Amino acid sequence: MPQANVVMHTRRVTPTTSIIDIQGDISAFAEQELMRAYNEANTSTMRTIILNFSGLEYMNSSGIGLIVTLLIRINRQKQRMLAFGLSEHYQHIFELTRLNDAIKIYDSESAALAAA
Amino acid sequence: MSTLPTPTNGQPDEQPRDAAFWSAHVTGLKVSNVPSGALNLNVEGKLVNGPLQGFGKMWQKTYRVTLHGASVSAKEVIKTWKEHFPEFWPARNRFYGPLTGIAPGEVALLNLTLTGGIKLSTGVLVLYADEESFTLMTPQGHIFAGWITFSAFEEEGNIVAQAQVLMRANDPIYEIGFRLGMYKEEDKFWQHTLKSLAASMGVDEPVHMQAICVDPHVQWVHVKNVWHNAAMRTTIYTMSTPLRWIRGRGRKRI
Asked: How close, in Å, is residue B133 to chain A by CA atoms?
C-alpha cells in the first residue's frame, strides 16, 4: 500500500489554540498522520484547532472525507476548527463540498488566530 | 519561532496535481442531455448536499471485495467500473450516466425503486474522478446527504475494489426509514454492485462491510430538508400523471 505523502506539524500557540501545519498530500493514506497531529494538539484546555493548508500539494475526495470526520471529532469535543492558507483551487473545493458551511476560512494565520 | 511551510499552492498559474479531477463549482445542478427512458425529476437547480448538510446520524460505511485471482490493475478496475457502472446495479434501479461518461462535473439521473415499491427520481454529481477512484455527491432530496467514493487499490498482493459512503440521511423521513431497516437495503445495494463488478472479472468473493457511526446526533437545523424529499415528490408526480395527461389532451384540442 502506498505510503502517506504528508507531514503534519503541530504548534501550540496558546493554551486554547493549536495550529496543524500540513505539508504534502491529503488522501485516504493521510488518516494516521492527521489523527496523530490532532491527538498531539488535543489537550484538556484546547478550544480551537486551526488547519494551515498553505503547504497542501494534493487532495482527493477521500482526503476531504478525512477533514469532515476530523471536524466531527473536534466538534464532539466542543472544539472549533478553522482554516487558512487555502489556495483559490482548494477554497473552491471547500465550497463545492460545502465544507465552508462549517469551517471558517481565513486569509492568514494572524486572521485565524484573531478569530480563535 | 517556528517556520511556516513554504506555500506551494498559491501561484495562480501553477495548478495542483488534483486540479483536473474535481468538478467545477456548481450553484445548482444542470442536466444537459436526458437519456431516453429516464425520468428527469428532482435534479434541475438542486444544490449538492454534503454530509454536513444532512439531518440524520453520520455514517461511514465501507464495502469491499478482494479480487483474488483477477489479472487486473487498480486502474483497469476503475476503468471497467466507470464504463459499466449502470450494469452493476440491482434490478429496478437505473443509473442514467452522462453521454460523456463518468467525468468531473457531470450529472447523472437516478430512477430508484425503494422498499415497498416506492419510486424515487433524483440524481448525482460526479464530484471527483481520477484513474483510481471516482466520487458521486448527492443533491437536495436524495435519500442521503453526502458522497460515495468508488476506488481500487492494491493490498497484500491483491486488488481490492471498494465503495465508501460518508453520509447522513437527508431529512427526518429518510432517517426514520433508515432506522426501520432501510439501511439493510442500502447494504444489499452496494454488496450487489461489488459482487457484480467482481463477477465481471471472473471473481466470486464475499463483500465485506464495515459501518462506523461518525456522529450519533441528528441535526435539527436541517429538518427543513424534508421540503426537497425526492421520494415524496416523485410520488406526487406519479399520482398527478393522469392530470397531466388530461391537460395535455386539452391543449391538443385547442
From this structure: 9
